[in-house]
Amino acid sequence: DCSMVKDVRTTYRRRHSYRTKSNKTRVVKTPGGRFVRQYLTKATNVAKCGDTGVPLFGVRAVRSKTARRMNKNERTVSRAYGGTLSAGAVRERIMRAFIIPDVKALLEEKMRKRRR
Fold first, then answer.
1. Residues 6+ apart with CB under 8 A from 61
2. How many Å apart are CA 74 and CA 81, to the nearest integer?
């Protein structure tokens, strides 16, 4: 029955007067009985590894403004490439950096032995 629903017309409380993605609100009834618009914050995305795309552990999913207010140890992980690459990706890079020269040296040695 439509006559039971109360008319809850409200106005925006800030200067931004268009219904856009950044101006999402929700109507809430206050303890005093008034209906007021509450502004909603945008949903955040979890930080992901640049190499593998895996979500990063130890990095909170927050908006830029909130992140600026946080301590550095809350924003990153204390490791090389902490907060941008996952632990697995860093391990892979380290392995590659040390193993490739060794493999090349071994191959060169084999080639020298074949030439003799």
1. 44, 45, 46, 47
2. 15
Burial class (CB in 10 A: 0-12, 13-18, 19+), 47: buried
Q: Helix (H, G, I), strand (E, B), or coil: what is residue 23?
A: helix
Q: Are strands 25-29 and 35-39 parallel, antiparallel or unpaired?
A: antiparallel
Average pLDDT, 10 consecutive residues per value, the chain (116 residues): 69 94 94 94 93 92 90 90 93 90 86 86
Give start and end residues of each alpha helix (H) in 1-116. Answer: 64-69, 72-75, 87-115
CB distance 76 to 59 below 8 Å: yes
CB under 8 Å to 85, separation ≥6 — which residues? 49, 50, 51, 93
What predicted TM-score, i.e. pTM, was given to this entire model? 0.62
